[in-house]
Write a structure and sequence with these properties.
The protein has helices spanning about 10-20, 35-40, 55-60, 75-85, 95-100, 100-110, 125-130, 150-155, 175-180, 185-195, 245-260, and strands at about 1-5, 25-30, 50, 65, 85-90, 110-115, 135-145, 170-175, 205-210, 215-225, 225-235. The strands form two sheets. Strands 3-2-1-4-5-6 form a six-stranded parallel beta sheet, with helices on both faces. The protein is α/β, with parallel strands linked by helices. Helix 1 links the parallel strand 1 and strand 2. The chain folds into two domains: about 1-120 and about 245-260, 3-Layer(aba) Sandwich (Rossmann fold); about 125-245, Dihydrodipicolinate Reductase, domain 2.
Length: about 270
């Protein structure tokens, strides 16, 4: 299957490298980036550099597109891919919450929309529990202050996270509200909401914690089938501290699973 990558930054470059090095059944066909020259330069040492194209051509040429762009341009990629009946792999749970029509786009055109695990853990367990009755889902995100600077919720409410010497709770509300206020930080909360009881029933806390050097997420689920608490501590990406290194790896794992004859997990 031919794979395209939309966005060639923190996540896209890692995915591109893995595809160039070889994933059975998959071939890197094209890349879409606002900075075409930089994208081409980043593939200069590839064994098989891909063409750098626009969103429409990416959708035409590829069977699968890994979407790694900012949420503000999510639909620029999602719409042409899904209306062409292709598969879109994304970690932008926040993008899907803001644009739920993409699900109908996929359904109406024979496309497929896959939300990769991203920086969270336990989504298989949450999805399984949702087949029964979930009583409560709560998520607590703790990040180093540098990972939260510039978030719309902080800017709109004049909340500073600079110079902290102790943890500071900067948000409490629903996963949907959190995804809107911290679009670059809590795609994990959006994914958790969609996997379980819904983004409006999933509770979220966000803390700026100067004692941390990793992005930390704890989810607590109480259901009729199980009660569980899970915590993950993600190493920050060098280029973007708000994104964990494991996020790009989850996209690679998702792509590998689409072509593999054997896959572990739901």
């Amino acid at each position: 299957m031919k794979v395209g990558i939309a966005g060639f930054g923190t996540i896209g470059k890692v995915v591109g490298r893995a595809l160039d090095e070889g994933i059975e059944g998959l071939e890197l066909e094209a890349v879409c980036s606002r900075d075409r020259e930089k994208a081409a330069a980043n593939m200069a040492d590839y064994a098989n550099p891909a063409d750098v194209v626009g969103p429409e051509e990416l959708a035409e040429r590829c069977d699968i597109v890994a979407e790694c762009v900012p949420k503000s341009v999510f639909m620029d990629i999602a719409e042409p891919v899904l209306t062409a009946g292709k598969t879109l792999v994304t970690v932008s749970g926040a993008g899907i919450l803001v644009h739920p029509e993409v699900i109908d786009m996929a359904r109406d055109n024979g496309g497929r929309l896959i939300l990769a695990t991203g920086a969270l853990l336990g989504l298989d367990a949450v999805r399984a529990a949702a087949e029964g009755t979930i009583h409560e889902v709560r998520m607590i995100t703790r990040k180093p202050p540098n990972a939260l600077i510039g978030a719309p919720h902080l800017v709109d409410n004049n909340i500073s996270v600079e110079g902290l010497n102790e943890p500071k709770k900067v948000f409490e509300g629903t996963a949907r509200e959190g995804a809107a206020g911290f679009p670059a930080n809590v795609n994990v909360a959006a994914a958790l909401g969609m996997a379980g009881v819904g983004p409006d029933e999933t509770r979220l806390e966000i803390w700026a914690d100067p004692s941390l050097d990793r992005n930390t997420h704890t989810i607590k689920v109480d259901a009729d089938s199980a009660r569980f608490t899970l915590t993950i501590e993600n190493v920050q990406s060098e280029e973007n501290p708000g994104t964990g290194k494991i996020t790009a790896l989850s996209v690679i794992a998702c792509l590998r699973g689409l072509a593999a004859p054997f896959r572990v997990g739901t």
